[in-house]
Amino acid sequence: MKSSRVGRVVQLLTTLQAKKSYTADKLSKILGTSRRTVFRDLKELQKIGLPYHYDPKGGGYTIDPDFFLPPIDLNLQEALSLLLLVHETGRQIQLPFKNSAILASLKIENNLPAKIRSYCNTAIQSISTHPGAQAPMNLLDKTFAQLQKAIAKKQKVLINYNSLFEKKVIELQLSPYHLLYNQRAWYVLGFSGIHNSIRTFKLNRIADLKTLEKRFIDGDNFDLQEYLGKAWSMIPEGKIYNIELKFLPKVAKNVAEVQWHNTQKISHNSDGSVTAEFRVDGLGEIIWWILGYGDQVQVIAPKALRKKVITTAKNMINLNEQI
Questions:
Q1: Res. 148 pLDDT band, cuts 50 70 90
Q2: Fewer C-beta within 10 Å: the chain N or C terminus?
Q3: pLDDT at 151
Q4: Distance (Å, rounded) from C-alpha 70 to C-alpha 73?
């Protein structure tokens, strides 16, 4: 549900709770929209689980007023921050149980004092976030809920996984420890029986998931930050590298104003460039971030990283010259 429609949807809910039956034409006039928009909003309400009813005899719509929560004592900032959290975070990431979150926010918003509700409706319409590309996942709610339950009950799961490394679907037993959203997708971390180690699995590559009766006794001491260590993103490789990069003036300020890694050190140079230093576990992940800056970055150290960047850049040139 886009933030620009929130105010209209709340008004629709308030209207439908008036213990009257409204036709699509009447709702269209009240909301100042077309019949098509009314039907689209009604479908959105149905999608997130709002129990509105249609009377075929009278041709009108209504909703049970007892469905909503009693008034909630929230001040303006509390209400606005909560609604922004739901509506905008839901656009930023693939939020599990997103429809339930939207429904909860609408319940809250519907029972806010009129002045606060009006202010929030206006404010939300003038605030937007620009979410990045995300890995699509049609069964996120089901898979997420099943894994979360298995983690809570310490039950093993059997998964069929589309492995990019093995280049085939593999079957394995997993003791799930932790769910993580990172880099546009959801992952589950846990002990893999087939790999005999803790591994990371992307949820949208799980082709099939079955909860087993088997339980695991480890995992209580699993610490995500300790596991990730100094990995650039989420895959530690077991070797620490001292990385030094020089970013040219065109992108220097952009790079310097972001905290990319917890070991980051930034030095500003007299020519307008910046030197960024990191201590990173592995080179596999950071190389793609470096390549994203194209001809605006130089790899000062280590030589192994510079060699990888040069090799990849040459391969890119060769590949594109073949066209």
A1: very high
A2: C
A3: 94
A4: 10
CA distance 267 to 85: 35
Classified as helix, coil or strand, 215 is: strand
CATH number of 1-129: 1.10.10.10
CATH code of domain 240-321: 3.30.70
Query: Under CATH, what is the fold of the domain 140-228?
Result: SH3 type barrels. (2.30.30)
Could you check whether 1-129 and 240-321 share the same CATH topology? no
pLDDT, tens only, 51-88: 677 877 777 888 766 665 555 677 777 777 777 777 66
pTM above 0.85, yes or no: no
pLDDT at 1 over 50: no
Boundaries of every domain in the chain: 1-129, 140-228, 240-321
What is the pairing mode between strands 206-215 and 155-163? Answer: antiparallel
Instruction: Provide the greatest CA pair distance for the chain.
Output: 79
Q: Checking DSSP bridges between strand 52-55 and strand 60-63, what pairing results, if any?
A: antiparallel
Please report the sign of the dihedral spanned by the C-alpha atoms of residue 148, residue 154, residue 160, residue 162. Answer: positive
For residue 298, the cross-strand partners are: 246
